[in-house]
Amino acid sequence: MKPIQVGLLGFGTVGSGVAKVLARNAEEIGRRAGRAIEVKRVAVRNIVKARAVAPAAVVEGLAFGNDFHAVVDDPEISIICELIGGTTLAKELVLRAIANGKHVVTANKALLALHGNEIFAAAQARGVTVAFEAAVAGGIPIIKALREGLTANRIEWIAGIINGTSNFILTEMRDKGAAFADVLAEAQQLGYAEADPTFDIEGHDAAHKLTILSALAFGIPMQFDKAYLEGISRLTQEDIAYAEQLGYRIKLLGITRRKANGVELRVHPTLIPAKRIIANVDGVMNAVVVQGDAVGQTLYCGRGAGSEPTASAVVADLVDVTRLLTADPEHRVPHLAFQPDRLVDLPILPIDAVETSYYLRLKAHDKAGVMADVTRILADADISIDAMMQKEPAEGVKVVDIIILTHIALERRVDEAIARIEGLATIAGSVTKLRLENLDK
Amino acid sequence: MKPIQVGLLGFGTVGSGVAKVLARNAEEIGRRAGRAIEVKRVAVRNIVKARAVAPAAVVEGLAFGNDFHAVVDDPEISIICELIGGTTLAKELVLRAIANGKHVVTANKALLALHGNEIFAAAQARGVTVAFEAAVAGGIPIIKALREGLTANRIEWIAGIINGTSNFILTEMRDKGAAFADVLAEAQQLGYAEADPTFDIEGHDAAHKLTILSALAFGIPMQFDKAYLEGISRLTQEDIAYAEQLGYRIKLLGITRRKANGVELRVHPTLIPAKRIIANVDGVMNAVVVQGDAVGQTLYCGRGAGSEPTASAVVADLVDVTRLLTADPEHRVPHLAFQPDRLVDLPILPIDAVETSYYLRLKAHDKAGVMADVTRILADADISIDAMMQKEPAEGVKVVDIIILTHIALERRVDEAIARIEGLATIAGSVTKLRLENLDK
């Protein structure tokens, strides 16, 4: 089947990420979508600058041009990916793509919060889809969760950390006891905050996203102009410290809640109990909590910004539309995520071929030499030790607990080493083995 | 449009939950699905027992019967909801429903882990869908996230707390320092563990779910027989305590990871760094972490079992199929989750009509009577105090910080009270007001 042709509008952080992910994961994405997805044309303001954003291998196959309208009018293109931002040219191009009968994928929260009602009505009338998973919380599939995953529920409220810049600043203020202005300067240096940070730190960006979530949760039109905004720039170190002493953390939350007489729609610094999971979502991470009457609370957490996390959501939308244009409706989404004729036969590894870290607990007779024996056995088996703890035995007890954490090792070697350790005369009984995962990659 | 007719097989915890949620949220669900969803028939083994499970208002409109096959053969029924569990009769009925051209929604992880390959092939050949969001992690839409939300990614690994019973037991062992056997007995009393708990505590249930997640992540057939299982029954209090001292928590994790030579598929107690969010998912909650190459880590957390959380996922699948049978493919999922002609005009409330709790910081001249004045003003405004903290001033400083946390109050009243407090001669400067959310309902 002929590949789906995509037109990219914009090739900055997100646009180049989309091209990278589509190139790197082409095979995997094709197995899922049932069809290849190809970027036919890219429209940018500055071609030289755009070409410098991504590696040569990604850029060389792409047809760059300056004419945004020509891409939107190209009859061979089925999906327009709007990634230029802003609400003027972006709006014009999105409406023109819709009028041309093309599906649209956009990451533009401002555009949707301000003009979504008009755009969706046009798409509805023209029989096309406007997909926007990337518009809220980057790579977290929260739009899909709300539109499809939680449809059984009467949604009661949503609360979210949906601006990574603010969350980074608040986390640093708390961790380092630093003042707002100092942390902002640091965030700007790290590229987490713009030169003009107003949009992020005064809650505008979060309010755009919250407006979209609120509409999806309650079935109401977008009403960004009614949102209440309060940023983090006035927060002081002393309030953060006092909140901490009282058992709370301060986060910039977007909150939308259904009440008998209407809907709350507000973004402001908020004290939350420190023991809540969302209170522990730090740095540039985003998280959204949804309260539904049947499911209770569900929480979604991940990177809310950045090149590839945002591209992850854009490409998921591209796959969604591709599946729609490719398969029978009842087989749009394959049962096992990949097309049934494209499953692979990767073997399941036996447990002794697993590589991970280990926790070992030994009971040793408190005799000189036992540690030397044990560490020699581990060294012989190429198992390196990350940490070791010895618990002094209680008065009169002859057996001491030794706990060893290993670095990553092959389970078969660990088992062999354990057998040798258990054979030592200085070791009592059997060794307790538990697996340990750092989950950091 | 005529309502979609559903046949329910089974009316236990989950089946009755589905009936309750469909009844309670009929209006909201219809606005989302574009069509009403109606339970036409319910097949159960014991009608008297089944009728006693749900409130009279839910049960009275339902047609109960004993003949499972008759429901599956009913030509007016479009979707069969298999909620009887087990792998013998359930398998026969699901395959028969597929042969009859009906879509199937099931919560049966054992059935899919053991016979999914055969069932999905049959569905594919017959042109119907078998939906199974409820089979893994209850109300958390993790199947949808993997099949649709994360399609851009090469999935590297998944790690999940996907058995609530085990997580409850481990949480209690840690919090109370109690032995496994004692906590198991408590869990059985609370209804969190079965009389025969083997299935949950020895990892079978988690391995069924992990087998499904692994197939979805890597595009491989279901291979439950190759999964490695190790339960929590041998875990001792001392290992939990030692792990804690070393900065780790022990969780029963299901882990599946892609390696160069195959796929790891294993369920076992696992040490995880205590600062990881998933290490802090306690009690009966479930959580799944997915590592994708583009998005990085995303985490999904919520209730993994129970009547309505599981029903939430079953009904979401019913809505998915209903949308498929109702709308044009490109408008299957409405842009704003609800059908465009079924949006409502709930007003957005102004900020002074919001009700929440508040953090107030006052700077008071350290004079007798200031606390009495402030508390009287709050009492007059019907604002009750949850906590109060007074910071003794440093040597030579005349102004003392007073922090007040209020119970839930109307913002307008809080603002009025603040104006009165700021008018007191004993108060210096303006009052700092922050909002506080407990997020507990």
Automatic annotation (TrEMBL), chains A, B:
Keywords: Amino-acid biosynthesis, Methionine biosynthesis, NADP, Oxidoreductase, Threonine biosynthesis. Residues 359-439 form the ACT domain. Its EC number is 1.1.1.3. Pathway: Amino-acid biosynthesis; L-threonine biosynthesis; L-threonine from L-aspartate: step 3/5; Amino-acid biosynthesis; L-methionine biosynthesis via de novo pathway; L-homoserine from L-aspartate: step 3/3. Pfam families: ACT (PF01842), Homoserine_dh (PF00742), NAD_binding_3 (PF03447). InterPro entries: ACT-like_dom_sf (IPR045865), ACT_dom (IPR002912), Asp/hSer_DH_NAD-bd (IPR005106), HDH (IPR016204), HDH_cat (IPR001342), HDH_CS (IPR019811), NAD(P)-bd_dom_sf (IPR036291). The keyword Amino-acid biosynthesis applies. Belongs to the homoserine dehydrogenase family. This is Homoserine dehydrogenase.
